[in-house]
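dumping the sequnces here before i forget
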Amino acid sequence: MNKFVASRHVQPLLSLVFCCCLSAQAQAQTPTPSPPAGSKLQSLTQSPAAPSAPRALQIQAWKTVTGTKVLFIQTSELPMFDVLVSFAAGSARDPQHPALAAATFSLLNERIQGKSLAQIKETFDGLGARWGMGINHDRTWFSLRSLSAPQKREPALQLFAQMLGQPLLADDALLRVKSELLQIIESQQQDPLTQVVRGMSGLLFNDHPYAQSVYGTTQDLATLTREQVQAFHKANYHAGNTQITLVGDLTLDQAQALSVQISNSLPVKPTALAVADIPVTPPTRTSRHIEQAQNQTHLMLAQPGVSRKHPDYVALRVANLIFAGGSSGSRLMQELREKRGLTYSVSMDTADKQWANPTVIYVQTQPQFSEGTLTLIKSLFRDYLHTGPTSRELDDAKRLILGSTALASASNAQILSGLSEISRHDLPFDLDFSAHQAQSLTVEQIKAALNRHYNADHWSVVTLGPTTTQQALPEPVDRAGLGMCRAEEQIVAS
Amino acid sequence: MNIYCSALLLLSGLMPMMAFTASASTTHEFSLDNGLKVVVREDHRAPVATSQLWIKVGSSQEPPGQSGLSHALEHMLYQGSSKTCAGEASAILERLGAAENAFTSNDYTAYYQTLAPDHLGVAFELMADLMTTAHLRTESFATEIEVIKQERRERTDDAPQGLAMERLQAIAFPSSAHATPTIGWMHDLQRMSATQLREWYQRWYAPNNATLVIVGDVSLGQIKPLVERYFGDIPRKTLPEVYAPLELAEPGERKITLSQAIHAPQLLMSFNLPSLTTAPDRRTVQALRLLDILLAGSNSARLKKHLQFNEVLFSQISSGYDPFNRGDSLLLLSAQLNSHQQITLDQAQARIWQVIEQLKTTPIDPQELERARTLLIASQVYQQDSITEQATRMGTLESIGLSWRLMEEDIETLNQVSAKDIQQAAVTYLTRQRMSVAHLLPENSHE
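..and the predicted 3d for all of it:
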């Protein structure tokens, strides 16, 4: 009921950053944690029990004859499996028609030969199967979770494959989908966070399709035709434009058959296929304020980062984690939350879009502190570029990253997420790859990477909230030092 | 299309928490002399374990004027104790690669750490220390209460649906403390003091008011000595008498209207229902869970099919029923009007009532019932994918005074439920006398 469950802090984004699983290598590298100076914990001074054996997970990879890339990890402990099918069919694909991708995507599960929308939903529910779908500017994806027993698995898959490959894309369904998308676009115009993101996209991407809503514009939506949708489906949902990732209680043979079934149901690859490269031009305006009556002001800062494949990617991920990770130890969490009580959470993340990779910092604070908070964040970042992380900060981050690798492959859902990231970015077949790379980084390398890519003066900033008289920020309180806590430590240590 | 809408999930707020199918997992339980109950569930898929310390205290125990105490205390436990400085407990755990956090609800407060099993001793030692020697200093509280107010502004005051749920809850429970918001009313946060927190901590934080749940790559032989070493010396306390938050069966029809920054009108309808702890029998609870799935709690549910997909009256509609409460519960329906439909919320509500009345008068088609049952059973399998979800189920059951075993015995009762039971449940429980309604209107509009 009151499962408004209030948490102490927002979960760190680490699982997004390093979707990893344990390997023998990672385990071998795990350092024995040394207690922080003066720690009073007995458990940290005792030699830990022998570390558990890493989870044996093997990535199997293949390509179907029609050109679909497939990655699979078998886990047989639970009688279930997950499949994710992803298409390079996001809303930036057709810059002239920003609503076309979302309309096509939304139509896939509306109607197939012999089954209405209601029957599709009833069939999945009746099999106990769960399915989901999502869209961004670059891609769309469809997921299915089902029991692995053949009498559940086979009909669920048949329906799933038919939905993706042979949707009817009917006129009446298009009408319904248009109405739904219109509702979503309108509701987004009222949602503060979406407005902040859209405002920032406007600054960063100018007239690039990334500046539009993923769901398109009401104007484009109004004029879309069934023929356009059918052509878009043919051009973008073909087997060669598709990636499949699979995890669960399937044999290799079953997994292969399953991938072929999905791949074969998709349209064949068109002969003439031209996907234009759409480069992003640098931002021209650097700030924007959206006036809105709110109790909190939203602050978003962004500047270009690097892509997932860039050699500095991992260094910057670690750098961002230290500066503004969601854990209580990051610099922004310390300065904004722990010392000044200005905010509940902070986040810093780099988007992995095809043509742009903005690094984005986002916080909320009270309106009268918004300017002071913005100035403080910028000044802390300037200092960070100047000094880089401390060796203690880097050491802590490496331990956190390495220690959490096992956590990231504890469930099928987590393994699927890591596997999909490997597939999407053509990463090495190792769920722990990024975590291992991070272990060899030095303070100097991180500092150099920070200064190669970021500039303290290059922030684009969007604020949303009420205009109000600004106040000086509260004086910082060193809570760790309260009650002579640190002094006691020194006495113990000496 | 079925785009995942987290806002509506938050609104319905009621993640259906379900039991498991009988599984091969081995689960052990034991109690220390001081009354700490320990549940250990072996899941050897990955070299990971989660440890969750559940304290039986939440917002439904808080006296008027002191709402939010349990949650504020949860925040303050990390601000210094005999063995840790402010923030140090989290820092130590993160250096071990742990995912750690804490959460508070109406019935409980829980602290969890997910990490490599060989570091469980550190998690235990920290939790044992935090639950007994937290400093709860006034100076530290002055900053932390500001963080909590920010949390409230972000998640309730500036979140139309969060605020609407809080207000609905306030009228849905006229005679019990379930009306109290877990985050606390802002005016109570403004007058809260560290002294109140210390008293609250002294009163409720005791081994005999707690459950420690461990799920993962562990054995009883490994866990038991560690638990005894770190928790064994904590003295038990005499606990205050607790009273389950019982609600009037039929409080009468209630309604509030809110004007909010939303683009289309929204409707919340709740019905006062029993929970697993207050229902006459478990079969009733299973009938209510199935009723929820049939109503709007699944993709093929009736309200979705008729009013969202066919008539396109609503752009979204969903329902939820949470049977895991120390006291009585609610079934909650939430819907957003299609802004291009020229109907009022009253008319939309009348359409929902027609569907409800049909459930009362016409027996459910056996195929439809089987579908709902299959969905429940399948989700019980899926829930075993996550060790933290397993631990949370068991911790919740223990914290509301039931046994973790209940989750493994569920299927049998589920299979006993007949179409007639569901019809009867609809007749008994989906009545106007049990209903509270919130109408959410876009600002500057009139109903």
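Chain B has two domains: 24-231, 246-442.
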